[in-house]
Amino acid sequence: MKKTLTSLLCAAVSLTLLSLACGEGNPPQVPQPLEDGGVLWTECSPEGAAEDCSQGESCRFIASYDRYLCVRACDPQAACEHPDAVCCPSADTDGEGGSCVPNGGCAPADAGTDDAGTDGGSTEETDGGDPEDGGSTPDDGGTIEEDAGTEPDAGTEPDAGTEPDAGTEPDAGTDAGTDGGSETDTDAGTDAGSDAGHTNIRVMASNLSSGNYQSYDPGHGIRLIKGVDPDIVLMQEFNYGNDSATDIRSLVDQIAPGFHYSRETGAQIPNGVISRWPIIESGQWPDPRVSNRDFAWARIDIPGPRDLWAVSVHLLTSSAGNRNGEAQAIVNEVRSQIPDDDYLIIGGDLNTDNFNESCFATFRQVVTTAGPHPADHNGNTGTNRNRNKPYDQILVDQDLRQYQQAVVIGSNTFPNGLVLDSRVYRPLSEIAPVQSGDSSASNMQHMGVVKDFLVPNF
């Protein structure tokens, strides 16, 4: 039932007095109850939730405050209505929902055990980032090999003279401007060079942020990308450090020194593209269903007469209908802007529950979506943390699909492409510096996806 203003004020006073009486260690202040079609949050008890909470709310234990509060449901992909609330993933919804809780009240169960102190604390998690397992599941079976302070190429200094101007337009200043011809040291089975008139192009879809701030700071995602030596990376949640031009340049150089990149501007969890070859044009198309990111595209000057357009996308978890609407918006932009003769890749985090979703039929207007699909050593095509949903994809047009080839890394061959899960990949030495626990790190909700193409230079 809806509470009166007097009841709301009493509830707020009760929360304050209880906190003082218990002598808690100064937890973040719980905002005053607000009237917004009901109380945003009020103290409650699980047994009396129906009486304590307003319609549309549920009673949830908030560990940071050591008490139960009435909270509203939310989409982990979108911010809560009130600025002092954050959408915290719910452990019992398989990553499909969350609750608006007081700022600072969303903390994973294993916080502090995963590269503690490396998150930077600069990016407030107002978007749940489509977490699987509620974003707070303890790491599986203690298999993570902790590695605080051992990020690859940690000592690589960015070239101050090649930093993009943070204030420039997305297709002007976000390209690193360095020579993309430099080779990485890791040999994961591709040399990206010309061979008898052809160029091998390894593409990776990467929503591989981890930790508490949807960032690559903890280093797990950096290792996973570096380990398979891609030529083009479709990045989601493209955050690092304070997200300055210097920080992003440092992230790219840790993955592949000297590579070019573009990254959308004005986004909380931006998409972007990293490329071995020069990015000659880039920008972003608006996402009609969410406000904290868009669709980032880059036109890449690969060897040969045809350019390659890479579109990095991150679709909503909220519903298949919303994802289909986003897919149609992308298709419309592709048809209006990309030449038919150029190659096209659309990839990243689609958040799709299965291959029968309507967005695949919509994407089929401009790219191929039919299987067989990439898989891991066990033939599993799932790319979420639980490995039961095809969240992440690399979809290409028919012109490029005809040149797809098996992904070969060391002694392993993946005929249809690779779903990279460090928990099952063997031997790990083939994808150094990857560690076995990287794919089960705190808030690592996705697996990387890799496809190879042997493209003619004529």
List key phrases describing it.
2 domains; five-stranded mixed beta sheet; eight-stranded mixed beta sheet; 458 residues; alpha+beta; disordered N terminus; Deoxyribonuclease I, Chain A; 7 helices; 19 strands
Protein architecture, described:
- The protein has seven helices and 19 strands.
- It is of the alpha+beta class and 458 residues long.
- It folds into two domains: 138 residues, no CATH class; 297 residues, Deoxyribonuclease I, Chain A, CATH 3.60.10.10.
- Strands 5, 6, 7, 8, 9, 15, 18 and 19 form an eight-stranded mixed beta sheet that branches.
Helix content, binned percent: 10-25%
Separation of termini? 71 Å
Mean pLDDT, rounded to whole units? 76
Rg on CA atoms, Å: 23 Å
The oligomeric state of the chains shown is single chain
What's the CATH superfamily of the largest domain, by name? Endonuclease/exonuclease/phosphatase
